[in-house]
Amino acid sequence: MCGIAGLIHRGKSSNVGEELQNMLQALKHRGPDSTGYALYANNDGQNFIMRFKVGENVGEGSTSVNEDESVYDERKKLVDKKLSDLGATIMKEEKLTPYSYRYEIKYGKDLMWFSKAIESIESVEILSIGKSLELIKDLGDAITVSERYGLNKVQGTHGIGHARMATESGVDIKSAHPFWGYPFADVSVVHNGQLTNYWNNRRALENKGMRFMSECDSELIAVFLAEKMRDGATLEEGMKQSLTGLDGVFTYFVATKDSLGMAKDTMAAKPLVLYESDDLVAMGSEEIAIRSILPQEIDTYDPFDGEVKVWQI
Amino acid sequence: MANLKTSSKKTKAQSMGMHTEVLTGKTQQKFFNPDEAENFFYWGTHKVDFNKRTELDVKDMDCKEANNKIDELMSEGYGTIVIKNPQGKHSLGVGILNKLNLIFEGSLGYFGVGSIDGPIVTVNGRVGWSCAENMMAGKVVIEKNAGSCFGAAIRGGDLICKGSVGARTGIDQKGGSIVVAGDAGAFTGFMMQRGRIVILGDVGINLGDSMYDGTIYVGGKIGSFGSDAVEAPMTKNDIEWLTRKLKVAEIGNNVNLSKMTKVVAGKKLWNYDALEPTERKGAI
């Protein structure tokens, strides 16, 4: 089933970490396996934020293989060496869990080449790279993940999130949403639904040099949009092309450093409720997600089939 | 048994594109016999007084607590209940089987007022997916927008939305009427079997897809017709019915009813081959 939520403040910042946490917690019944956040924070914009994992959460409910934690430290050392080889400078590093890190790095060259090099290290996956994007995903509900990573104090302009019920792939971090729009900085995607032409699209996109990290069908949306943008399409153009390029049922959100978008398949098979005012857009799989941050009486609506919308901060 | 052979009823129903044949064999239906009313007990009902009014704040209740409280109030004879702070909660006001004036001061989530049989419900807000699903009788008025599957599988009553509705409005509808002042999404009237849908605004693609029977009236543009949905001429009976129904709904004062598009089942789909002989006669 899965639940998705997103919000964008226009013309101001807010505590988007806590707001998204509340929205996703209200949708917990739609997806108890894992929760993910893509928060667009008030960073200084000087350096890239790279969030990556060197292993999996092997806690209760996880389908991942248990590993000795010592391999995580070894992999982290390999990442540091690779960064040095690539000419990147680590400005700040934080160990968030035994298996995940947040680095601020100074780097000015090609991100695709950079990402391929880092991810060539066994079991290392870059969750996101961007100057404002903070992408966090892990097993557990919204509050559990938020507390584990200290998200409820993150100030920013917008964000999207996902409460996942695993149906197409395992209960692990790599299959959790959001997905980073590799190799574009600050692009993230969450999805509710199932895609039925995943393998056809995946094979075609891999032949064009695009990268997949999981076997989760939802990752296709991020890669599909990234490929369209690589070929010169705007975000909105790419999203409109996805309505016919992707087969199945879907409602998805995509965010960039300064925008938030939604798309709904042509059968409108997946739910979405939307609230829009001059200074805030909030949306979610169910109205209770919006109510968790706006308890007062408001006007909401369901976008129609085949609808694509993009908002700027 | 209901007499469906009455010629005047038959002519009227046929002119509106409705099903008229007498049901026999496996599809034979038995109806409530008023002569046996004194022996009839409808489990879960209460005798209420419309003039006895109360308010219930459900802000800190989950849907089960709220519904139990509504039931408790009805058992105490309250006939007008105002629900405060529904705040988009799911499944509120479901399974009410008696007359009741139920007013929600706010919005409902999914499956609001489902499986009801008799109450008059007003929602001064929006409703989520599958509002009034399986409604048997009564009247439900939504003052703002509604989500998808509005009136799914309703069997009777009047379901009214003064805003716009999502996709698959009236899916599997088996009776009653759905009236929408605004627009409707894709697959409106999908697989509907009886009853009527009125959309005063535009509708999305695949209108009336695979409908077995029933009638859909559209005031605005139609995205596309679904499989076996066909346009039919508007008749005097249609205009009369629409006039009466829109008056009940208190919407559409300025609509030119004669310009509306009427959509019925073409009855050419495979399922009509599986009908019993008497039904097949009416389907060909």
Describe the structure.
The complex is a heterodimer of chains A (313) and B (284). In chain A, the strands form 3 sheets. Chain A has a 6-stranded antiparallel sheet. In chain A, strands 9-10-11-12-15 form a 5-stranded antiparallel sheet. The model of chain A has no long low-confidence stretch (mean pLDDT 93). In chain A, a hairpin with a 3-residue loop joins β13 (273-276) and β14. Chain A is built from 8 helices and 15 strands. Chain A has helices at residues 16-26, 70-86, 111-119, 142-149, 198-207, 219-230, 235-245, 287-291; strands at residues 3-9, 34-41, 48-53, 89-97, 100-106, 125-130, 133-139, 156-164, 179-180, 188-195, 248-256, 259-264, 273-276, 280-284, 308-312. Chain A has 313 residues and is of the alpha+beta class. In chain A, α5 (198-207) runs parallel beside α6 and α6 crosses α7 (235-245). Chain A has a domain at 3-44 and 136-312: Glutamine Phosphoribosylpyrophosphate, subunit 1, domain 1 (4-Layer Sandwich), CATH 3.60.20.10. The radius of gyration of chain A is 18 Å and the shape is globular. Chain B has 284 residues and is an alpha/beta fold. Chain B has a single domain (7-283), classed as Glutamate synthase, alpha subunit, C-terminal domain (Pectate Lyase C-like). Chain B is 15% helix and 23% strand. Chain B contains 4 helices and 11 strands; from the N terminus they run αβαβββββββββαβα. Chain B has helices at 7-15, 63-75, 236-249, 277-283; strands at 49-57, 78-84, 101-105, 117-123, 137-142, 158-161, 174-180, 194-199, 215-218, 229-232, 261-265. In chain B, strands 1-2-3-4-5-6-7-8-9-11-10 form an 11-stranded mixed sheet, sandwiched between helices. In chain B, α2 (63-75) links the parallel β1 (49-57) and β2. The radius of gyration of chain B is 19 Å and the shape is globular. Mean pLDDT of chain B is 87; it is low at 1-6. Chains A and B meet through α8 of A and loops of B.
